[in-house]
Amino acid sequence: MKVDIKGFAKPLIESLIAVIIGILVGAIILAFSGYNPVEAYSALFDGALGSKYGWAMTLSAATPIMLTALTFGLGAKTGLFNIGGEGTVYFGAIAALILTNIWGNILMGLLGGIIAGIAWMAIPALLKVFRGVNEVVSTIMLNWVAYFLALYIIIQKIPNPKDPNKTIAIPLSARFPIIIKGTELSWAFAISVIAALVAYYILWHTTIGYELRVSGYNERAARYAGINPKKTVIWSFVLGGIMSGLAGAIEMMGRPPSYAISQGMANIYGYGFDGIGVSLVGRNHPLGIIFSGIFFGMLKAGATAMQIEAGVPLEMVRVVQGIIVVTVAIPGLLDLLKRVVRK
């Protein structure tokens, strides 16, 4: 099989340039705000990559957002703007908590996340196929429905009787083993990498993957080729639901120390939205998402060191992170907009 080196080199170079620009813009803002950018970035990279602990925390932070990025990326390859990963994560986490407390094993937790993800993503899929509802509108609204419905379930149905600040916990028998003791890195990271590899295989080595890509590139041409666009839409949402549902499940089963949903869903909120940026930085490609997920994990893991060692307040850390993320995501966003305009 011939590999298109130029096809990989161009987006890689564009992303690297965007990373450099984002870092430079962040450095300028830090300097104007009275902080030493060299010290700040040194602390960030040292905290995220300078030790075994730093690497472990980086990979741990990357684990769930790689999966939610696959949800958005699979949608983008099909010509959809699926931003419903956020709500799907909530129900994947809840399903894993309930099923592992009933059956007490990892497989049931993963299965629960998958089923919950497919079920929740089926709603915007059916609305799109049978009623023509734009997926951006439906998924945004359903994210809020999911948020408040999940809060109700967490508070009313599965609270921890010994600690009202969190839900019931994943039992010991259903928790992923920790790879490096004293860190949050578990074998859940392997699930995310395997999922990305499976997504790559589906997209480029199966009939359904070919149909998804053709439909996303040019729906009219896909129709002439005998491809059913309704079928590709449903498959895209189903695969996306599996990924985000798994994200919620493995976050519960592989994140010490609580292995539960905390008050206000603080420990699972935002993963779906972060996944959009990760996917755009990875150019909506499953293999690119692995590396962009690690890059985002580095930014998250190094934030604490940036505050402690360089004295940069949390708000400024988030400003710098946001600037880097937006800058790096621009090339992928432009690709997506070009595809929309072409359609």
From TrEMBL:
Transmembrane region(s): 12-33, 53-75, 87-104, 110-129, 136-155, 185-203, 233-254, 260-281, 288-308, 320-337
One GO cellular component term noted in the UniProt record for this chain: plasma membrane
Pfam name, any one: BPD_transp_2
Keywords for the protein's UniProt record, in alphabetical order: ATP-binding, Cell membrane, Membrane, Nucleotide-binding, Transmembrane, Transmembrane helix
Membrane topology label: Multi-pass membrane protein
Subcellular location: Cell membrane
An example molecular function term from Gene Ontology annotations: ATP binding
InterPro entries listed in its UniProt record: ABC_transp_permease
Main location class: membrane
PANTHER family in UniProt: ABC TRANSPORTER, PERMEASE PROTEIN, GUANOSINE ABC TRANSPORTER PERMEASE PROTEIN NUPP
Name this polypeptide is given: ABC transporter, ATP-binding protein
Lineage: Archaea, Methanobacteriati, Methanobacteriota, Thermococci, Thermococcales
